[in-house]
């Protein structure tokens, strides 16, 4: 179980210093997609916001998606999926420059996307800035910090994350990169790449 530490900080995207980082290193489909960038995430909360830091080292990085709730998974992307009960799960997906997608769904096709107001409440800061760019090749490293308010869990009515238990998984992908890849924090046992499989989420608990 991952214990998500409570820290007393203002609600802002920030590098989580001193919070243990977890590797996103399960290459579940390595035979077809052997490339695996180096990826970690750290998670904390301050009661009202879930705070995430993603760190990535990779050979190909791209950020061409221009709008929230666009196909950010086709860029160099990191993702955080979380389920609080059997009603469904939230998929938070972020490109390397912080363009975001958020849906709540029971199954992959059965989705309600967040409103523009909810999307605007999800605070993001990328070490790459926020300008779009075509694929860059080389030794690329970047960091994305995110602050997600409890109100972004729009199918629930949380006032605080204190003591909440959930199930989650974290991913790194880049469907349209020269070196596509599909990594996860918790292992996934499906034949083809598929992140929308809550049966493979791991347990998390908010302090």
Description:
A hairpin with an 8-residue loop joins β12 (165-173) and β13. The protein is globular. The protein has 1 helix and 14 strands, in the order βββββββββαβββββ. It is 3% helix and 46% strand. Strands 1, 2, 3, 4, 5, 6, 7, 8, 9, 10, 11, 12, 13 and 14 form a 14-stranded mixed beta sheet that branches. It has one helix at residues 116-121, and strands at 2-6, 22-23, 26-27, 38-45, 49-63, 77-85, 88-95, 100-105, 111-113, 123-126, 133-149, 165-173, 182-184, 202-206. With 207 residues, it is mostly beta strands.
Attribute tags:
1 helix, 46% strand, 207 residues, 3% helix, 14-stranded mixed β-sheet, mainly beta
Strand portion, in percent? over 45%
Shape: globular
Distance between the termini: 12 Å
Which structural class fits the helix and strand makeup?
Answer: mainly beta
Please tally the β strands and state the result.
Answer: 14
Element-by-element helix/strand order: EEEEEEEEEHEEEEE
Proportion of residues in helical segments: under 10%
Largest sheet: 14 strands, mixed
Low-confidence stretches: none
């Amino acid at each position: 179980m991952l214990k998500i530490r409570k820290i007393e900080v203002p609600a802002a995207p920030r590098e989580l210093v001193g919070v243990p980082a977890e590797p996103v290193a399960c290459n579940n489909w390595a035979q077809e997609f052997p490339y695996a960038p180096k990826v970690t995430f750290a998670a904390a909360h301050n009661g009202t916001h879930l705070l995430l830091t993603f760190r990535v080292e990779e050979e190909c990085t791209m950020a061409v998606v221009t709008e929230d709730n666009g196909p950010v998974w086709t860029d160099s992307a990191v993702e955080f999926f979380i389920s609080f009960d059997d009603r469904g799960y939230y998929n938070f997906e972020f490109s390397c420059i912080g363009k975001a997608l958020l849906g709540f769904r029971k199954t992959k096709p059965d989705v309600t996307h967040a409103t523009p107001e909810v999307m605007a409440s999800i605070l993001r800061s990328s070490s790459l800035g926020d300008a779009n760019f075509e694929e860059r090749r080389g030794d690329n490293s970047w960091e994305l910090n995110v602050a997600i308010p409890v109100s972004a869990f729009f199918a629930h009515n949380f006032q605080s994350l204190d003591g909440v238990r959930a199930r989650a998984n974290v991913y790194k992908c880049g469907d349209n990169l020269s070196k596509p890849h599909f990594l996860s924090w918790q292992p996934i046992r499906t034949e083809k790449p598929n992140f929308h499989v809550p049966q493979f989420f791991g347990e998390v608990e908010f302090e």
